Amino acid sequence: MPDIYDFDKTVIYPDSGQTFYKFCLKRHPAILRFLPGQAWAVLRFWLGYKNSATYRGEYFGFMRALPDWREEVRLFWENNASWMLKPWYLAQKKPDDIIISASPVFLLEPICRQLGVRLISTGVHPEKGRVQGFTCRGAEKVRRLREEYGDIEIGNFYSDSLSDTPLAELAKKAWLVTGDKIEPWPWKKDD
């Protein structure tokens, strides 16, 4: 029975997408030209005018301007994984762990491969900066898990966000992560 983890602010300290953007901005300041469109997309998302997939697609539009996005992702993890990964996760990591995240597959695949764990995540086309399908968040995480693994039983589930309650409800035990503090999931139905 695998354990399932959210990724950003759960397995790692920061948001991977924002941290990757800052990393790329330092190396390629010209991507700053995408900032007005990104800010506008964030504002429209917060105000409820854009869905998550559209927002993420616009946010990662800067990828089109990178000379070699695969190399940027490789360098990002090479330079940042050691401080980003939470020690408590590394201490309990198992090969049957599944990471389920709203972050883009292209960004998380390399680190999940390095960790030796499975990944379900949002498809974002790096060359086009467009989301493929739906953002893997909330109830969509459950749908994607069932699509990939059928009626799999979940041992422990860890996330920093109450929007992941649909997955928490499926787990034997669910845990809310705040920094390095791990406590029982609020509002979890008892078995």
For the termini, the CA-CA separation is 16 Å
| Radius of gyration from CA coordinates | 17 Å
Q: Considering DSSP H and I runs of 4 or more, what fraction of the residues is helical? A: 40-55%
Count, helices: 8
How many E strands?
Answer: 7
Oligomer: single chain
The overall pLDDT average reads 91
Biggest β-sheet: count, sense, barrel? 7 strands, mixed
Sequence of secondary-structure elements: EHHHHHEHEEHEHEE
Strand order of the largest sheet: 4-3-2-1-5-6-7
Query: So what's the overall shape?
Result: globular
Percentage beta strand: 15-25%
Coarse structural class: alpha/beta
Q: Which residues form runs of ≥5 with pLDDT under 50?
A: none
Mind explaining what this structure looks like?
- This protein is an alpha/beta fold and 191 residues long.
- It has helices at 16-27, 35-46, 52-59, 69-84, 87-92, 105-115, 139-149, 165-168; strands at 4-5, 98-104, 118-125, 130-132, 154-159, 171-178, 181-184.
- A seven-stranded mixed β-sheet has the order 4-3-2-1-5-6-7.
- Helix 2 (35-46) packs antiparallel against helix 3 (52-59) and helix 4 (69-84) packs across helix 6.
- The longest helix has 16 residues, at 69-84.
- The protein is globular and about 45 Å long.
- It starts with a strand and ends in a 7-residue tail after the last strand.
- The mean pLDDT is 91.
